[in-house]
Design a protein that fits this description.
Strand content: under 5%
Distance between the termini: 46 Å
Number of helices: 6
Helix content: over 70%
Order of helices and strands: HHHHHH
Transmembrane segments: 6-25, 32-50, 85-114
Pfam families: SpoVAC_SpoVAEB
Shape: globular
Number of domains: 1
InterPro entries: Spore_V_AE (IPR014204), SpoVA (IPR005562)
Radius of gyration: 17 Å
Organism: Pseudobacillus wudalianchiensis
Protein name: Stage V sporulation protein AE
Oligomer: single chain
Length: 118
Amino acid sequence: MLAMFFWAFVIGGLICVIGQLMMDVGKLTPGHTLSTMVVVGAILSGFGLYEPLIDFAGAGATIPITSFGNSLVEGAMQESEKHGLVGVLTGMFEVTSSGISAAIIFGFIGAAVFKPKG
């Protein structure tokens, strides 16, 4: 069990280090870095490499933003098997809608409760 925590920390930290290096060394903006990490997660998922990473690292691979790209591809693939080309578009939204909705709701609550400095 300790090894599971160790590898989750190492893999999650490595993903974060790559993102930080993209901003510091590559001089990418946070938006560009975020988009790139999502696309990399989607590409890894498309080649079947992200699921083994999740099996190995657990939360170390499911918490970083690369997992969002994986979720988009997995949703599209699942729904495309059922509904064809239309499923590709609807599947991405079906799988990720709860996370996006939660982010919007909690962002609104945070903005309503806390007063920004400035």
